[in-house]
Design a protein that fits this description.
This protein is 32% helix and 29% strand. It is of the alpha+beta class and 196 residues long.
Length: 196
C-alpha cells in the first residue's frame, strides 16, 4: 500500500479574512478633524536649544460627537497624530435639537476662558470665532451663536466650550430626571416641537 499525501487544508486568501479592525477603520474614516493651533516650544539645554511642537486638534463625526486633544513631539506631523489620537479617545456625545442646534442657551468657563453659547433659528449658520467654530463644524451643528468673553487662549476657549456643551441637557433627559413628560418640559419652553 502506497503512502498517500495527507489532504491539505485550503486557507482563504488573507484579503477574504474578516478583520476585527475593519469596523474601527471605517468609523475613524467618517471622522472630521480640524487643526486648531500649533505652538513651537523651545527648551534651553547645555548644548543650545531643543525645539518641539505642540498641536491642538478637534475631532468630530458631524452627528453630535466631538472631542479635543493635544500632542507634543519633535516633528509637526507626529504632534498632530498624537493630538488626533487623544481627541478620538476623549470624544463625547452632545444632544442636539433637530440635529442642527443646541437645546438651550448655556455658559461655560475654564480658568480665565468664558464662553456663551446660544441656540439659533434655522438659517443662522455658525457664528463663532476660530477654535469654537472648529468644534461646532466637526460636531455637525448648523445654527449657533457664540461669544467668547474671557481668555483668547485657544486651549482655554476650547475647554470652556466643552464645559458649556457638557451642561447642555435635552428635554428627554430633564423629563427623566424630574419624573415628567417631555411635552411638559417643551411646553414650558414655549415650543411645539417634541423632537430631541
Amino acid at each position: 500500500m502506497m503512502n498517500q499525501p495527507a489532504p491539505q487544508k485550503r486557507e482563504r486568501p488573507r484579503s477574504d479574512r474578516p478583520r476585527g479592525g475593519e469596523r474601527r477603520e471605517r468609523e475613524e474614516s467618517d471622522l472630521i478633524d480640524r487643526l486648531v493651533g500649533i505652538n513651537r516650544v523651545s527648551k534651553v539645554v547645555k548644548g543650545g536649544r531643543n525645539f518641539s511642537f505642540a498641536a491642538l486638534v478637534v475631532v468630530g463625526d458631524g452627528k453630535g460627537r466631538v472631542g479635543f486633544g493635544t500632542g507634543k513631539a519633535r516633528e509637526v506631523p507626529e504632534a498632530i497624530r498624537k493630538a488626533t489620537d487623544t481627541a478620538k479617545k476623549k470624544m463625547v456625545r452632545i444632544a442636539l435639537r433637530e440635529g442642527r442646534t443646541l437645546h438651550h442657551d448655556v455658559e461655560g468657563h475654564y480658568g480665565a476662558g468664558r464662553v456663551v453659547l446660544r441656540s439659533a433659528p434655522a438659517g443662522t449658520g455658525v457664528i463663532a470665532g476660530g477654535p469654537m467654530r472648529a468644534i461646532f463644524e466637526t460636531m455637525g451643528v448648523q445654527d449657533v451663536v457664540c461669544k467668547s468673553t474671557g481668555s483668547q487662549n485657544p486651549h482655554n476657549m476650547i475647554k470652556a466650550t466643552f464645559d458649556a456643551l457638557n451642561r447642555c441637557a435635552s428635554p428627554r433627559s430633564v423629563a427623566a430626571r424630574r419624573g415628567l413628560k417631555v411635552s411638559d418640559i417643551v411646553a414650558r419652553r414655549g415650543d411645539t416641537e417634541t423632537k430631541e
